[in-house]
What does this fold into?
Amino acid sequence: MTDEPTDADNRSLGDTAESLESTLMADLGETLVGLASYEDGEYDVLYRDEAASSQYAASDIRAILEHIQLEAIGTAVYEEYHGESLHATVRVYDTLVTITVPVEETTGLVVVVRNDDKHDPYSIIETVENAV
It folds into this structure.
């Protein structure tokens, strides 16, 4: 066995997110509202259901992603307190569920789904972790 990186190790977060988009679309269908990535202060919205997210201006979405990234920077503190890895943060709102999966300290993926009880957040987290 070698220690050389595989093709999967060399994929950028953007490449991973693009392939994840098709997987999530197939798995979640109309339940999927949005998919975004954040990396070192940069944000990329890969998928956005316009009907479900019409109340948010592009600047609102950017602000939300900035706050998510700032919160993710503190992940290491929570991991130290609990002595375990933090795999995701899930926020449940009246109509939406936001699932943030940190990849590194300033890098991660955000999946937004309708709060319709059709999909388990744990399975979505597992799908994202498998893609990474």
Notes: The first strand starts at residue 32 and ends at 39. The chain has a mean pLDDT of 85. Residues 41 and 66 are 7 Å apart (CA to CA).
